[in-house]
Design a protein that fits this description.
A 6-stranded mixed sheet has the order 13-15-16-14-19-20, with helices on both faces. Strands 1, 4, 5, 6 and 7 form a 5-stranded antiparallel sheet that branches. Strands 9-8-12-11-10 form a 5-stranded antiparallel sheet. Helix 1 runs antiparallel to helix 3, helix 1 runs antiparallel to helix 6 and helix 10 runs antiparallel to helix 11. Strand 8 and strand 9 form a beta hairpin. The protein has 2 domains: 305 residues, no CATH class; 150 residues, Reverse transcriptase/Diguanylate cyclase domain (Alpha-Beta Plaits, 2-Layer Sandwich), CATH 3.30.70. The longest helix is centred in the first third of the chain and has 72 residues. It is an alpha+beta fold. The two termini are 52 Å apart.
């Protein structure tokens, strides 16, 4: 079995690059997800914190007013409570959007506040250690609004505690949540101790509904799980899924100070996931494009370094399969590495070079070029410094050729002595002319006072000929034209070089 070395190396490189691409993609997914999570979580917590702060500030304004009225009441020691309440109502009710102001002086410890004798606002336990408090939020169907009460202790009258209370509209709190609502991205809601949803950023149909009943739809928990977690203080999962909407949510929550209100803030993860997927798709496309470019460059390098050996292996296989006569063994040796490469310079042997170029031009559909390169002044170097030194200069000359064309797809062969052949593949003629501007300066050198340079003849495939032998002849003619022009220059067939 003959293994094509170039193909084998290419497959191994592809395999390793594929693994590298997978690793880079996974790392990118991890780091991008962590980055997005941190940004999203920070924003959600910030929104929750600002809403909580705004709600607390709203409540404290009424608390301060309650405390001020309490001091005023105690200072004036007015026994006529009804008249005093009427005075306060006239001054503060409209200015502070207070629905009702009243004073309780109960006969027992449990008192309930009623608004207009029909609306139960909430229950207050007298005799507790707190000087002020907030009742639960209640729905008034007649006025189509939520209300709640805030109260403050006034002291004792005839051995019984008195409480000053405000009945307040809850829409002020609701409006705070609406101010922070972002459509299809994030919203907040408030759940109180009786499991009622009393505020929502945009879904009014959820108001006054039981969070336990709608827990799976709104929060992502079943009724039993909701009750269990609420009692354990673990009501809100950080990640939840709404089957009804097909949406993943990220949740954070906090308790509003001095209330039994739970503030829940949520963000729609689907939007972030979609953006992440689009970003990943874009990055993977870029990775694949870069990989293809790298592989294209590597393939050229691999082919350049292995094509000779691969050709030797293929032809050796054909020879061995036919018979093992001495004649064919000699052919096998001819196509061995030593037989393909010029031992002195490392360039391809002439016959191997021509064979390779023939294979190339048969399969090519683009313009290519055959260079016939002759080193000038080799005879002077040999006569002055000796043939060994001349061989050294030939090696240096070949390296200059190879280094100058290292970015191009080329084959370089030694025609004999100080003459070299070069095949340049797939390059527009305009780019060739740009390349040739620097070729003479890069191939020129000086050793022990003797200058050597290059005379170059160029024939173009298929413009000048489609036959390799004819191309070689035309390049040779162009070379002699360059010699006639004074050496150290190039000539394209039928065109005079510089």
């Amino acid at each position: 079995m003959i293994v094509i070395i170039g193909k084998d190396i290419t497959e191994k490189v592809k395999k390793h690059i594929k693994y590298l691409l997978i690793i880079l993609t996974l790392l990118d997914i991890i780091f991008s997800s962590v980055y997005v999570y941190k940004r999203m979580n920070a924003k959600l917590w910030a929104d929750n914190k600002f809403i909580n702060f705004a709600v607390v500030r709203e409540l404290k304004e009424y608390q301060k007013l309650l405390e001020a009225l309490t001091i005023d009441h105690e200072k004036n020691q007015i026994d006529k409570t009804t008249e005093r309440v009427r005075a306060w109502t006239g001054i503060y009710k409209d200015k502070f959007h207070i629905i009702d102001i009243g004073i309780l002086d109960g006969q027992n410890n449990n008192k309930e506040i009623f608004y207009n004798d029909f609306l139960h606002v909430g229950k207050i336990t007298l005799g507790n250690s707190r000087n002020w408090g907030i009742t639960e939020v209640s729905w008034n169907a007649d006025s189509n609004r939520y209300v709640y009460a805030m109260w403050n202790k006034l002291g004792e009258k005839q051995g019984q505690e008195e409480l000053l209370y405000f009945v307040l509209p809850f829409e002020n709190i609701q409006n705070i949540l609406r101010a922070y609502y972002q459509e299809d991205e994030s919203y907040s809601l408030i759940i109180q101790e009786n499991r009622k949803i009393v505020a929502h950023s945009y879904k009014d149909e959820y108001l006054n509904s039981n969070a336990k009943k709608h827990g799976e739809k709104i929060i992502g928990y079943s009724q039993d799980e909701f009750e269990k977690r609420y009692n354990n203080g673990e009501i809100i999962p950080f990640l939840s899924y709404s089957k009804a909407k097909g949406v993943f949510y990220w949740n954070v929550y906090s308790w509003i100070e001095n209330t039994n209100w739970l503030l829940l803030s949520r963000v729609n993860l689907n939007n972030y996931l979609l953006a992440l997927l689009m970003l990943f798709a874009l990055k993977i496309s870029i990775f694949v494009w870069i990989t293809k470019k790298i592989m294209k460059l590597l393939n050229k390098k691999i082919y350049k370094n292995t094509c000779c050996v691969d050709s030797m292996l293929i032809k050796s296989k054909k020879i061995i399969c036919n018979n093992d006569s001495q004649e064919n063994i000699d052919k096998l040796l001819k196509y061995s590495v030593g037989g393909m490469i010029d031992k002195q310079t490392g360039a391809l042997r002439r016959d191997i070079f021509l064979s390779k170029v023939q294979e190339k031009i048969v399969n090519t559909k683009t313009q290519s070029y055959l260079f016939f390169i002759d080193m000038d002044n080799l005879k002077l170097i040999n006569d002055s410094l000796g043939h060994n030194y001349g061989d050294l200069i030939i090696n240096l000359f070949y390296k200059k050729i190879r280094n100058f064309f290292h970015k191009q797809d080329v084959l370089i062969g030694r025609f004999g002595g100080d003459e070299f052949l070069l095949y340049l593949h797939d390059l527009p003629k305009a780019e060739l002319l740009v390349l040739l501007k620097d070729i003479n300066a890069n191939l020129r050198g000086r050793r022990k006072g003797i200058v050597y340079s290059a005379s170059i003849g160029i024939a173009i495939y298929p413009e000048h000929s489609r036959d390799l032998k004819e191309l070689l002849s035309l390049a040779d003619q162009a070379l002699y034209k360059a010699k006639e022009d004074g050496k150290g220059t190039y000539s394209i067939y039928k065109f005079v070089g510089k």
